[in-house]
Design goal:
- It is a single chain.
- By secondary structure, the protein is of the alpha/beta class.
- Among the domains are: 110 residues, no CATH class; 162 residues, no CATH class.
- 48% of the residues lie in helices and 9% in strands.
- Strands 1, 2, 3, 4, 5 and 6 form a six-stranded mixed sheet that branches.
- The radius of gyration is 29 Å and the shape is elongated.
- It holds the Pfam family DUF2851.
- This is DUF2851 family protein.
């Protein structure tokens, strides 16, 4: 059993208070259950309880056993002096606050319906391949699931916004600079994301923006800072890059300090950093106001028109500098644009709308509803539970659900878990 079961019982008033008494035999009646607190401090704030005919206003603290009060050091913490009732599953010791005053205790194990307890235990202790509710998930009404996934996705956007806000602080609120860093990270993907971001951070954006709309100079910077240029030049293109990079180093005093190594291992050729660098340079070559264009774009088609670019000519016949290949025009694929929309553009637009205090999430959500779901093992496992995953909003929400609730056994903080318990 986990403590969140006690929170569930209290929040949804599942306790049989008829003839209930505290552990020392005093009558008890809850007039106000209080406000659930997910941060530090007592579990429920501003409750009102009638104990033995006397009203008590304050907070409620919960533990599986009374002795956990001392295990957590609450008897030394003045912040818990306003606790008026200690609600436990099993009472095993009397408790006191830092003023050495006794705190009334309500034991729950004898006042909770056995059927409810059995249903809870069946949910959280059943054998499963993926998640606790995998055998029951398909029984939940689709409207409940849809509403919950939308809320989860908004929570995921808020999480991503915190990262963006931190980047804004370090960039003096320069949205173009933050967009560039986010794009660099996401063009690097899972394997090279940190390395690409380290290149973006190796030079102040005020310098980079001086040459980033000149494709040759920008490619020279990216390839040079990444360490992919050699002093022995095998082609005129690489010679041009090398000479440009030497010029940039001399003019702007560039440094590779803190730049992480680039990896090719385990990457498919179309995802090689060489190809991604050239494609990103192509994006900035096409416009001098990328941030404004993306903020104004509200559909996949509009975003695609901005980002759908190809590499420079050399990379049509190469994946690396030293080896020639058959000619292939290497445009940014639709699937890669999907990833950029999910991981960069939508979170940045959401953060910007918050900044402007004009948040209307409907256009943002519509873009995600129009994109196909992502393909990964977590989404595949939800599909195997007979859950319909129709779009990218669903897949993003399910990733958030699994990472924050399912994998941590927090069924009773999930609308779907609570729904299953209520139905039983």
């Amino acid at each position: 059993m986990k403590e969140d079961f006690l929170h569930y019982l209290w929040k949804f008033k599942k306790i049989d208070f008829r003839n209930s008494k505290t552990t020392n035999g005093l009558s008890i009646e809850v007039k106000r259950f209080g406000v659930y607190n997910e941060l530090s401090g007592a579990d429920f704030f501003n409750a009102l309880v009638l104990i033995d005919g006397q009203y008590w206003a304050g907070n409620i603290e919960m533990h599986l056993r009374s002795s956990y009060w001392f295990m957590h050091g609450h008897e030394k913490d003045a912040a818990y002096n306003n606790v008026i009732l200690h609600v436990v599953w099993e009472h095993d010791v009397e408790v006191f606050n830092s003023n050495n005053q006794p705190i009334p205790v309500l034991e729950l194990k004898n006042v909770v319906p056995a059927s409810l307890l059995n249903t809870y235990l069946k949910l959280v202790e059943s054998k499963h391949h993926f998640i606790n509710c995998e055998h029951s998930l398909s029984s939940i009404d689709s409207f409940v699931i849809e509403s919950w996934l939308e809320r989860l996705y908004i929570d995921r956007l808020r999480e991503k916004s915190m990262v963006i806000q931190e980047m804004l602080k370090h960039s003096n609120n320069n949205w173009e600079a933050v967009l560039f860093k986010l794009l660099m990270k996401n063009f690097g993907g899972n394997i090279n994301g940190a390395a690409f971001l380290s290149i973006a951070n190796s030079c102040d954006f005020s310098i980079i923006r001086k040459f980033m709309h000149d494709r040759d100079l920008f490619e020279s910077f990216l390839f040079g800072q990444s360490g992919l240029l050699e002093s022995e030049i095998p082609s005129s293109y690489e010679k041009m890059l090398y000479e440009n990079y030497q010029f940039l180093c001399s003019k702007f005093n560039l440094s590779k300090l803190g730049v992480l190594p680039i990896q090719f291992f385990k990457l498919r050729p179309h995802n090689f950093p060489t190809i991604r660098f050239s494609q990103l340079a192509g994006v900035y070559k096409e416009t001098s106001s990328l941030f404004s264009l993306l903020i104004e774009a509200n559909t996949f088609k509009e975003i695609k028109e901005i980002i759908k670019v190809k590499t420079s000519g050399f990379w049509e016949k190469h994946y690396t500098f030293n080896k020639k290949s058959n000619k292939v025009v290497k445009c940014i694929s639709d699937s890669f644009i999907h990833l950029l929309i999910i991981n960069t553009i939508i979170p940045l637009k959401f953060c910007y709308l918050n900044y402007k205090s004009t948040v209307d999430t409907d256009p943002l959500l519509k873009v995600l509803y129009d994109l196909p779901p992502e393909k990964n093992s977590i989404v595949a496992n939800f599909v195997s539970c007979n859950l319909k995953v129709k779009n990218s909003l669903h897949s993003q929400a399910l990733l958030h659900l699994y990472q924050n609730l399912c994998s941590k056994n927090k069924c009773l903080q999930c609308v779907l878990g609570v729904k299953l318990l209520k139905e039983e």
